[in-house]
Design goal:
Elements: H1 14-24, E1 39-43, H2 45-48, H3 59-64, H4 71-78, E2 86-88, E3 103-107, E4 111-115, E5 128-132, H5 140-147, H6 172-196, E6 201-205, H7 225-250, E7 253-255, H8 258-261, H9 289-305
Parallel strand pairs: 1-2, 1-5, 5-6, 6-7
Antiparallel strand pairs: 3-4
Helix pairs in contact: 4-9, 6-7
């Protein structure tokens, strides 16, 4: 994804906070000591939630498009974890390789920052790790958004199920190869997390539904309905299957955001995805705050439902 007010999901009683903390194995304040963060979040801009209205104050947060109200922070709030127990490593533009390497994040407008590897901070006492990476691998997301826009002077829709309508780097074989690499890369990240935090719950978080089948609208007027069908098939259905396979292969949990986000596509009456025009609430083709609230709710529900590690 590219680099970019919601009410906090607060628990309503002390007993619920204690139960959630116990599910993560977090020590009570009386026994607290310097340790690895209880919760570490890895992710790209669909997790950092870039929006000018909620950008964090530090250069790292601005460069990474890391909102002060993105889903890692909402999850921490909902589970009764102090912010000092959260390490939010999400960063716009990140791909799976940035779990292991320094990422040069930002832009001339935002300023640049060398974000540390996203596995940073995970240790033996970490109890929850969420991972939302893969959409930027092989420039999948940006290549599709750029190549599938309607071309001036031609009536034929690009990026349809007809392979001849797509450039070579978006051929069936090329896209399949990228998706296979995403599965392998996400599985590698899960294994690396487990090596650092053997007792942590590890959740791979899927991507939301972006488009309704066969529908374009003013918010995405650059894309023909026939193009939208193919774009949806890759950026939602096949990408999520690739992430899900990684979870199965490496023994992590998968948080499926497709069911919750259906009906909230970019052209819907209550969209969770912004269109092609950047707004103070969301970067272009990125989630609005409501989507982050929904992701936090799904993760929180999973933690509360079962305290066992997969």
């Amino acid at each position: 994804m590219l680099n970019r007010t919601r009410p906090p999901l607060l628990l309503r009683c002390g007993a619920a906070v204690s139960a959630a903390a116990l599910a993560l194995g977090v020590a009570s304040p009386a026994h607290a000591r310097p340790a690895a963060p209880a919760y570490v979040a890895l992710g790209d801009s669909y997790s950092s939630l870039p929006a000018d209205a909620t950008a964090g104050p530090s250069q790292e947060e601005r460069s990474c498009g890391r909102s002060t109200r993105n889903y890692p922070k909402l999850v921490a709030d909902a589970l009764g974890l102090p912010r000092t127990s959260l390490r939010d490593n999400t960063c716009g533009g990140a791909d799976s390789g940035d779990a292991f390497a320094v990422q040069r994040a930002g832009s001339a407008k935002l300023g640049h920052f060398d974000a540390p590897p996203q596995l940073s901070g995970i240790g033996a006492e970490t109890r929850l790790v969420t991972i939302s990476l893969g959409g930027n691998d092989g420039d999948l997301y940006s290549n599709i958004l750029e190549a599938c826009a309607k071309r001036p002077g031609t009536r034929a829709a690009p990026c349809t199920s007809d392979g001849a309508s797509r450039p070579a780097h978006l051929s069936d074989g090329a896209v399949s190869a990228v998706l296979q690499r995403i599965t392998a890369a996400d599985a590698r990240i899960v294994r690396a997390v487990r090596a650092r935090a053997p007792r942590a719950r590890i959740m791979l978080v899927g991507y939301p539904v972006l488009f309704e089948p066969g529908r374009s609208c003013g918010a995405i007027s650059a894309y023909a309905p026939a193009s939208v069908d193919w774009m949806r098939s890759v950026l939602t259905e096949r990408l999520n299957r690739a992430v899900h396979r990684a979870a199965q292969r490496a023994g992590a949990e998968f948080v499926d955001m497709e069911p919750a986000s259906r009906g909230h596509e970019v052209c819907g009456a209550r969209p969770w995805i912004n269109g092609l025009t950047e707004t103070p609430r969301a970067a272009a083709m990125h989630p609005f705050p409501e989507e982050g609230v929904a992701v936090a709710a799904e993760i929180t529900r999973a933690v509360r439902t079962s305290g066992s590690r997969p």
